[in-house]
Hints:
The protein is α+β, with helices and mostly antiparallel strands. 25% of the residues lie in helices and 22% in strands.
Amino acid sequence: xxxxxxxxxxxxxxxxxxxxxxxxxxxxxxxxxxxxxxxxxxxxxxxxxxxxxxxxxxxxxxxxxxxxxxxxxxxxxxxxxxxxxxxxxxxxxxxxxxxxxxxxxxxxxxxxxxxxxxxxxxxxxxxxxxxxxxxxxxxxxxxxxxxxxxxxxxxxxxxxxxxxxxxxxxxxxxxxxxxxxxxxxxxxxxxxxxxxxxxxxxxxxxxxxxxxxxxxxxxxxxxxxxxxxxxxxxxxxxxxxxxxxxxxxxxxxxxxxxxxxxxxx
DNA sequence: CTCAGTGTTCAGTG
DNA sequence: TCACTGAACACTGA
Length: 265
C-alpha cells in the first residue's frame, strides 16, 4: 500500500488518534530487521509517557513529534501499514509496534514482509534517510524549466528516474506508471530526451495524480475511472484500458512497468 | 512449486 | 564522484 497517498492517509489517521495525547502504553515486538538496531525495551522505554505533538510525513516516510527526543520514524517498505482501533483484540497479525493513547485509542504499525523500518532519531527530518529525499509533490515541484534542467542530467529511462526518491519523494511504481500514461510518454525514454513541453506535462500530471489520490484518502475505488490504475493488474495477456487499448507489461529499471503503446510516445 | 509484488540498499561497473 | 544496473532482502498469495 505505501506510496505517498497511502502514507499521507496513515499520517492523518495517526494524527487524529494521537495528536495532543499521552502514550500510556507501548508494545514492541522483537524484530531486529524492522527495528533498525533498536531493542524492543529501548523503544517502549523511550515512548511510554510521552505526549504526541504532531505526526509528520515526507515522501513515504512518517514520524512522530514528541515532547521529548528521540522521536520514532517509520518507513513502510512494501507491506508495512498503520491502523487505529479501540479494541486490543484487533491488533493486526503482523504488528511490530502498538501505541495506546490516554483516550484508549490504539495505533499499530504492522509489516508482513519486513522491508519496512522503525527508527529512533534525534531529529528525523534532518537525518538520513529523510534528509536525503527530494521534492515531495504535495509540497510543490520546481517550475518546468528547472525540472527540465534536473532531468537533462539523467540518461536512464524516465520510469526509474521518477522512482528516484532523492528527486521525487513519495513516487512509487503505480504512480510513476500512471503519470507517464497520463502524460503520454513512453517509460523507456531517456529522461534527458524529454522536451520542455513533455516535462511540463509530466509535472502537471504528477501533481494532479498525487493531489487527487490524497483527496480521496488513497481509496483506489474512488480514483477516476480513466486512470490506468484500474486496469494495470490481472494476469490475462490481453489487459485493456476502458477504451480497449492494449496494456503492455515489461521490466524497466528492475521494476514492472505497465504502459499503453498507442497512447505513449 | 514457482513467481511476482504499492521498496530500498549495496556491490560492481563505466 | 556520479550515474546506472542488477541482485538481494523476506514473505505471502495467486
